[in-house]
């Protein structure tokens, strides 16, 4: 079981800038919990995501001593990837590839064909740099733009990624539109069809629908889940203002019910949870 904590996704849409020192203190607290991966920041245009304009400074302040957690940074283009791979502390680069042509243009100002070409180049760059590219298939469970969507389209995208040698694909519920009826068939079909790929679930949800989504993915064989403490963040285009990231505490509760041992330091988790509810997010 791999749990990926995503403070980057929680922070990026907040209008008030979180001080760099506060980010560093929070991320250092998260590094003590024992998550597999920490999605800590992004190397994108500061005009696009002003909240994360200090990612390089934050990275310089992180204490990785004794932490088993690996770092992941999101990039939106080749320039960002070239910057990210220069940092030896980073293990993973994440790139949002959308099955929706409209959303790809809005998110990275590219066509999906251009984005796929960039994925191939980024993968080669990561391979040369000793890093791994994580490809997020955004709008993986549907989209609001009227673009064609079907499980077959998602499978076709995955086939193209597999042909490139991509090893981690996270199906992403960008707007919280997924249901158990869409989640379960996709994971059930893709996981056995592409055994060389590690599939993850990046789910957005409302407070009342999280359990059915987690259960559908888990029962279909998914063993990699993204979450954010408090369920903070999510896509601003979601129609429901209650839609946010999958709350990590809910993930942990579900896994505990299934008897899954996460090997997390729960005392450290509670300290980080307290920080999230206090100085990190409460005043923003």
Give a nutshell description of this structure:
The chain is an alpha/beta fold and 284 residues long. It has a single domain, classed as Aldolase class I (TIM Barrel, Alpha-Beta Barrel).
Q: Which CATH top level class fits?
A: Alpha Beta
Beta-strand segment tally: 10
Structural class: alpha/beta
CATH superfamily: Aldolase class I
In the CATH hierarchy, the architecture is Alpha-Beta Barrel
Q: Alpha-carbon distance between the termini?
A: 32 Å
Count of the domains? 1
Q: What is the 3D shape?
A: globular
Strand order across the largest sheet: 7-6-5-4-3-2-1-9
Strand content: 15-25%
Notes on the structure:
By secondary structure, the protein is of the alpha/beta class. It has a single domain, classed as TIM Barrel (Alpha-Beta Barrel), CATH 3.20.20. 42% of the residues lie in helices and 18% in strands. It has 11 helices and 10 strands. The chain has helices spanning 7-11, 20-31, 55-60, 78-84, 101-108, 112-129, 151-164, 180-193, 210-219, 248-257, 266-280, and strands spanning 2-5, 37-43, 70-75, 90-98, 132-138, 168-172, 198-202, 204-205, 224-227, 244-245. The strands form 2 sheets. Strands 7-6-5-4-3-2-1-9 form an 8-stranded parallel beta sheet. Helix 2 packs antiparallel against helix 11. It starts with a strand and ends with a helix. The model is unreliable at 236-240 (pLDDT under 50). This is Hydroxymethylglutaryl-CoA lyase. Keywords: Lyase, Metal-binding. GO terms for molecular function: lyase activity. Residues 1-270 form the Pyruvate carboxyltransferase domain. Belongs to the HMG-CoA lyase family.
